[in-house]
User: Fold these one by one.
Assistant:
Number 1:
Amino acid sequence: MTRIPAAVWFLRTEDGQPLGQLYRYEGNEMPVTGAVLTDGASWNRAEVVEYQELLSTCAIRRFRVVVRLLE
């Protein structure tokens, strides 16, 4: 069974540097301020500082997510 993403998060550092994107699935699509992420390709842990929902495309929710790199 193939899982279809419910959302995509476009990650940025606090100073605006792009960190790539993360696909999220049903039940885990909304960012939460203060949550710690551990699934980055170029970083180990990052804290969600703020987010903004963008226009959806093809029924996938999109978010601009600003994170603070912890390690």
Number 2:
Amino acid sequence: MGKAALIVVDVQRDFCEGGALAARDTLSLLKPLQQTIEAARRGGALLVYTKDWHPKEHRSFQSHGGPWPVHCAADSAGAQLMPPLQARTGELVIHKGTQLDGAGYSGFELTGLEDRLRELNVERVGVSGIATEYCVRATALDGLQAGFDTTVLTDIIRAVNPNETPKVLTELSKAGAKMATAAEWLESL
């Protein structure tokens, strides 16, 4: 099997409890996600952290006609990774949603992530993080579209609306994504 990357999607302060656009039950995500990150590092996987990094006038914001409250504005406290997560030297931090318009849901959308992964000989990606029905979904679909062997790590994702999770996972499975727990995915490293 080819080199693997663990993509940690948008585990940022604004998407966690108490944040401007919090998903559900995110605090329970942090410990198992951190354990998965440590195990992935030991297993030789590349770590990729995606971060919403919106300009203050982003068109998705309600103040500019969009559906969402202001969240993850570039360089704001809300845009920072939620502790204890912290990227290390050599790990990728991908800023997405940096254009004024466009949702910026996917870690692959206008970020150069596909090219970076190819340069590093990554063939397989595990997708984790927030929010299942938005950015996790879009990142997994784009990973598949780009030809990566894509697995959604079902125990370390969180949704804004957990009732949507089964429908999203079915859609991703039909599109060709694999479903696994973090432990199952880590065994493949």
Number 3:
Amino acid sequence: MTRRGHRTAWIVVHENGPGKGGHGHLLLHVPAGLVAALTGKQRAILKHITGSTYRARVIHSRPVGGKLAVERTAPGLHAANLANALHYIIKGAEDDAPAVHMDLMHKL
């Protein structure tokens, strides 16, 4: 995204627990015009990061709010879903962490 002149914003969380073992969550802001290009590169990016070949069902990627451009067509729905996604990935963090991160996300 930086090579194409866009700022990046993301939150990444690594978890390790019973049942799922080690895994991570990434909440990433992708400008609408870059969604198709980035989606097509997810497997290559994962391989670059991990050094491992892609395994089925490893990547679960979907837009916040369930569809692209919902931040423009239904901003209230997008805000509610963004808050839910944020609370999910930072579960176990300090109580004020969601407010701090939501403030940062809205400044983008």
